[in-house]
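Readers of this paper often ask what the protein records in our data store actually look like. The remainder of this section carries one protein's record, kept here as part of the documentation.

:::
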Amino acid sequence: MKNFLLLAVLTVLGFANVNAQEIKFGAKGGLNFASVSGDTKGTDVVTAFNFGVMSEIPISEKFSFQPEVMYSGQGYSFNDNTVALSYLNVPLMAKYYVIKGLSVEAGPQIGFLLSAKNEKINVKDSFKTVDLGVNFGVGYKLDNGLNFGARYNLGLTDINNVENSSSKVKNGVFQLSVGYFFF
């Protein structure tokens, strides 16, 4: 985790020669449609929300770097029983503008488990505290700062932390969001 945070800081500092007036800061929020994959059967999608802050750092006319800090409600449902997972996610997105306003995005993400509940019972010890993933998505940004996005987060790490269990479980989240760049 320390290496990842060091890499994130160095990456942001590496863009320090970018004109500060071109860097945009904003906020966004939206809906999550989350579930898990792997050694699971009979799990269903749960709907939750996401919100947070973002920055867009232009690298060239077509490329931008967009770091974010997001709260993300995730989890899954089985037999009418919902497991609610709350994460603080840090996606580091590379954006390529296909045409003005329309971008495709991809990048790694690290997630820190904030809480895990099963019908109001704390089950945080049953899940690993760090989740690594990769995001793929599309976005559209209007000239006035309003933006829209659709993204899929593919979990890469096994989040199962149950003793004596060999089951592998990974997060999967489809996100829809609306945001606004303030300046």
About this structure: The chain has one helix and ten strands.
